[in-house]
Amino acid sequence: AKKKKKATRVVTGGKKKNKNAAKKVAVRPKGAEEEDEEIPPRSMIVRRGKTSKATMELVLDLRRVMAPNTTERLRSSASTSLKELLQAAGVLKLSHLVTVSETAQSVHLRVARLPSGPTLTFRVDSYTLSRHVRDEQQRPPAITSLKTPLLVANNFSRASEARTKLVRATLEAMFPALDVTTVKLADCRRVVLCQLVDDDVVDIRHYLIRADLAGVSKPVKDLVRAAKTPDLSTLDDVADYVLGGASIPRADEGATVVLPDRFTGRGNSAHRTSAIALTEIGPRLTLRLLKIEKDVAQGDVLFRAPAAAGPS
To answer: Rounded to an integer, what distance in angstroms lies between the CA atom of residue 289 and that of residue 285?
Structure first.
């Protein structure tokens, strides 16, 4: 409650002290690069203007992708101005502002680095909501953890255009840097894959990391995972259950690792061999770069796609 009151005072002004606070947040020296770098990655993802229910759901999906480093429960109306959003972002000490807007022809996604830019505008060529991805699966995984996801930027090393390198740098800056000396293996539960298709097109996928016992038959896996001991009274020998006529699946042979630490799931103890798999949890997006502006939604246009029709 105290934080909400503080944010309201800074945004709306009032007493001289509060006006100075607003001035401090809204106006920062252009040469404050060192201060910018100290802001940890944390984003605000909102819709702007009138949007469909599907686009509003896409905004919620994007917040879950970026969780916990985002204002996941933020409420904003379609009429909220850019100035108001920037004021709120300054109070909350956010590093990025992501806005989703919609026209009769397409959906646009804009990513602004705060407080001084640049701003990248993308057209969403296609997207699939998380619930639709789960509908395609026979057994959708239960997502119980929203620890910071890992970022994988694939195929960007072949990029030759400066704008493509800027896209990569912008995406990487939205995620906290991974410290391999302190990170806990159990916290590495999700992966965000950004795949460069060509210089102006990026595919984004969201996966859950799963580990499974490797080198054992299905009955043994079921026994390890079971909450209680199965009924073996009808068997002459426990080997009949363990063997069960089931062969060890070959899928385990290709993606096995020795876990350095405990991982989520029964049987995934430290120093044991497990098979690692990725399960897509959505959403899926294909983004096409339309425009790059030097500042936050204004300033010199550093790049504009030919015949680009995007938000002003």
So the answer is: 13
Given a contact cutoff of 8 angstroms between Cβ atoms, the answer to whether 246 and 187 are in contact is no
Closest Cα partner for 263 from 122, 145, 165?
145
Q: Which of 87, 93, 115 is nearest to 19 (CA)?
A: 87
Q: Specify the pTM.
A: 0.75
CA dist 239 and 28 (Å) reads 71
- The helix-helix angle for 2-12 and 82-92 (nearest 10°) equals 130
Q: Both tokens of residue 10?
A: 């800074």
Q: Find, among 102, 117, 94, the residue nearest to 54 by Cα.
A: 102
Token pair, residue 186, equals 């159990």
Residue with tokens 């022809």: 105
CA 1 to chain CA centroid, nearest Å: 28
**Residues 6 or more apart in contact with residue 226 via CB below 8 angstroms:** none
In 3D space, the residue among 40, 38, 41, 87 whose CA is nearest the CA of residue 66 turns out to be 41
Using one digit for the tens of pLDDT, what is the confidence trace for 25-43? 444 444 444 444 567 899 9
Q: Where are the alpha helices (DSSP H) in the chain?
A: 2-12, 16-26, 33-38, 53-66, 82-92, 130-135, 162-173, 218-225, 238-243, 251-254
User: Both tokens of residue 236?
Assistant: 């002459």
